[in-house]
Amino acid sequence: MSSKPLVIVGTGLAGYNLAREWRKLDSSTPLLLISADDGRSYSKPMLSTGFAKNKQADELVMADVGAMAEQLNAEIRTHTPVTRIEPDAKRLWLGAEAIDYRDLVLALGADPIALDIPGDAADHVYAINDLEDYARFRAAIDGKQRVLLMGAGLIGCEFANDLTSGGLQVSVVAPCDQVMPGLIQPQAAEAVQHALQALGVAFHLGPVVSRLSRDGAALRAELSDGTVLACDAVVSAVGLRPRTQLAAAAGLTLGRGIAVDRQLQSSAAHIYALGDCAEVAGLNLQYVMPLMSCARALAKTLAGEPTAVSYGPMPVVVKTPACPLVVSPPPAGSAGQWSVEGEAPDLRILCKDASGALLGFNLTGGCVSERMALNKSLPAVLA
Ligand code: FAD
After folding, report:
1. CB distance 15 to ligand 1 below 6 Å
2. pLDDT tens digit sequence for 182-240
3. pLDDT by residue (tens digit) across 147-169?
4. Hey, CA dihedral for 183, 346, 380, 43, is it positive or negative?
5. β pairing state of 169-174 and 146-150
């Protein structure tokens, strides 16, 4: 048996789920997990439901790093960024320290896109993409009230709902004409926006924040349409970019993420990738269900049984309880016709091809209960 470890870089849902799945199949090969963060196990989707539940960051932790190391029979190095990979030597570097691996898995996640906003208040802009970000934002808004939220995509809408339910006053600013553009149909977007407005969210769709300045103890945001908003903190939810820098420097092929095939194998031997950082057979899907499927398939491959990942239908449940929403986008490039049934907020919006076969759907309000039945007719995302 090789004494070199399987090394997994990243202790998010991708890294820890892979470790768990692989340990079911191989209980003895050494396992080393390396993380730039504190290695606590948590479920990232809970970050956008924490304010309504009044949860501190520590209350979202499922297991500390010691418990994870014991559970996985693994060594876990925390606050230790991997700085370089040498694929030909099967070696990685932690600063000046070298580690040889049997196989290397990159589960590096994605970076929030940071906007460069003129003004003197950039340090009051928070992206909430991990537990430590969540803790920082909670501390910053403690005792304060007004949040300006940049971005009206899925995560932006979830935060708008959650922060408002948690007692904060939220204004959403985004340069689009509907919420979740590109993801949902206009009728569904309208239903969600109306429900969030009824909850108290103010929308400024169209302009961007063109300047952010300090104004005494508060902030002053100037929008590109001339509106001026006062707020106490800004949350940025304008998108995530797969972390590819390490892989790029090591000469790995990139797409919209670290390019891997259906066995999660990168362009370099013995290096694999999964989760938000990976583009799997052309798809970079930043959701939990795909990474769970990848973890199960990759665990088998790493245990000696080469296994291709497949994805069935994977509808996304958007956590906007003000207007429940489930979305299954039609496959990219498919030609379908959309039809709208029902009355807001209870909408059944279906996309079908010329033969009447279901390609995708948006379900809102009471219609979300039809999701399981409709799932049976959906095409697989990766057959
Ligand atoms: P991450 O959890 O980001 O983990 C990346 C890891 O890599 C971290 O441990 C980091 O420290 C480490 N790392 C990075 N670079 C280095 C380095 N150089 N050296 C060492 N370690 C490094 N999806 C759903 O399906 N349903 C939902 O309801 C949902 N809600 C969400 C709500 C929010 C607010 C957000 C932000 C996302 C949500 N998602 C949801 C998406 C889902 O949570 C992510 O797809 C998933 O958690 C990504 O896991 P990951 O392990 O790939 O990345």
Report:
1. yes
2. 999 999 999 999 999 999 999 999 999 999 999 999 999 999 999 999 999 999 999 99
3. 999 999 999 999 999 999 999 99
4. positive
5. parallel
Q: How much distance in Å is there from the Cα of 62 to the middle of ligand 1? A: 15
Report CA(110)–ligand 1 centroid distance (Å): 7
User: Which one-letter amino acid corresponds to residue 278?
Assistant: A
Could you tell me the distance, in angstroms and rounded to a whole number, from the CA of residue 47 to the centre of ligand 1?
11
Q: Which helix (H) or strand (E) holds 363?
A: strand 358-364
Q: What is the pLDDT of residue 109?
A: 98
**E strand segments, 1-49:** 6-9, 31-34, 41-42
pLDDT the model gives residue 2: 53
Query: Residue 288 Cα, ligand 1 centroid: separation in angstroms?
Result: 9
- Mutating to test ligand 1, I would choose from 62, 65, 108 the residue with most ligand atoms within 8 A of its C-beta, which is 108
Nearest-CA residue for atom 23 of ligand 1: 287
Please, what are the domains in the chain?
A: 6-111+240-302 (3.50.50.60), 114-236 (3.50.50.60), 324-375 (3.30.390.120)
The interface predicted TM-score of the complex, written ipTM, equals 0.99
